[in-house]
Amino acid sequence: MATEVRQLMDTENYVCYNIRGHRSHEEVFLLGACSEADCEYLIDEKKGGVFMAGFDSVVGNKQIKEHFEKAIQLNKISHGYILNGEDGMGKMELAKSFAQMVQCEGTGEKPCMNCHSCKQFLSGNHPDIIYVRHEKPGVIGVDDVRTGINSDILIKPYSSPYKIYIVDEAEKMSVQAQNALLKTIEEPPSYGIIMLLTSNAEGFLPTILSRCIVLNLKPVSDEEMEAYLNQQNIPSDCIPTLVKFSRGNVGKAMRMAQSESFTAMIDQIMTVLKRADQMNIHELLGFITILTGYKLEIKDCLDFMQMWYRDVLMLKATNDLNLLIFKEEYAAIREVGNKKSYETIEKIIQAIDTAKRRLDANVNFELTMEILLLAMKEK
Ligand SMILES: [Zn+2]
């Protein structure tokens, strides 16, 4: 299948792959375009994702895609959408693909990747697709909403039928900011579409929720994840662990796949999870130095530990191997379970949550890990 000239802003990040998923030529092409006859995909080397047209770029979440496609076909596009799901599940990809499709000027299948609007979108410079920014990293304040949305939306679209505002991390909107947005969501101009992306839709005011269509992202199935990871040229021996670990979150799987230390990290954590009871305090605390090397991935480490103890609890309570995430580790899981009471296992799971909160609040890393590791030794 021939590839049309696709103009991309940040061409250095893109490498062309052919349709069989093999790297066909590695030169960075000046115009961000590939003219090879069998070339279909552009791969963003930094993000590691396959860049494809429209919703094909998003794994799973068929219902949301169908909802959007139907809305476009029937011309029943809502003025407010909430995309709700944990980080890494593809909220931004869905929102962007929807925005591109809504704005596409092509007459056939959308997005056509070829019209003026699609080219603007691909260059990252579509004047009527607006990514709402905020000044302070931790909060989207009332001024951000007033300037970024409320005033801007009064100006008619540049060249498209719609003006689409994408608000990432919308859970950071303060109550005042939400109230400021409410008026626009209640009486939007006919061309206005506001997309709020959030990992916690429950945090929105009921008035915001009732004015928007809430679409909840779902984890992708293990089969979909496996197929996707296979397409991404990931070493096949890593795939089963990634599938298990990511729990249907594609972004997480890719992040782990790109981490050079992923396998080593998992091995180390496994060792401590299995042997914490036998280790003396000195050995156990020596593990803090190892964990310090994975400071950047520590949240993933802690998630991994929690999944493990969830399995310990599950096996102890049900004795059913099929319910385990780490099935092949059942012997070690059973051994840990035999040594600990239900109450202790629950306490360890809570201690992991507490460790996550402490790290978020910038409590000393070594101290946080020390408390956690000692909790894992409890009987
Ligand atoms: Zn188009």
Quick structural overview:
This protein has 379 residues and is of the alpha/beta class. It contains 15 helices and nine strands.
Describe the structure.
- The longest helix is centred in the last third of the chain and has 21 residues, at 298-318.
- A five-stranded parallel sheet has the order 6-7-8-5-9. It has a four-stranded antiparallel sheet with strand order 2-1-3-4, with no helix packed on it.
- The radius of gyration is 24 Å and the shape is elongated.
- With 379 residues, the chain is α/β, with parallel strands linked by helices.
- It has helices spanning 62-73, 91-103, 116-122, 142-151, 175-186, 206-211, 222-231, 239-246, 250-258, 262-275, 281-292, 298-318, 330-339, 342-360, 365-376; strands spanning 14-18, 23-25, 39-44, 50-51, 80-84, 129-131, 163-167, 192-198, 213-216.
- Zinc ion binds next to α3.
**CATH architecture identity of the largest domain:** 3-Layer(aba) Sandwich
- Backbone structural class: alpha/beta
Count of DSSP strands: 9
Strand content: 5-15%
Q: How far do the termini sit from each other?
A: 61 Å
Task: Report the biggest beta sheet as strand number plus sense, adding barrel if it closes.
Answer: 5 strands, parallel
Kindly report the spatial arrangement of strands forming the biggest sheet: 6-7-8-5-9
List the helices and strands and how they pair.
Blueprint lengths: L13 E5 L4 E3 L13 E6 L5 E2 L10 H12 L6 E5 L6 H13 L12 H7 L6 E3 L10 H10 L11 E5 L7 H12 L5 E7 L7 H6 L1 E4 L5 H10 L7 H8 L3 H9 L3 H14 L5 H12 L5 H21 L11 H10 L2 H19 L4 H12 L3
This protein binds zinc ion.
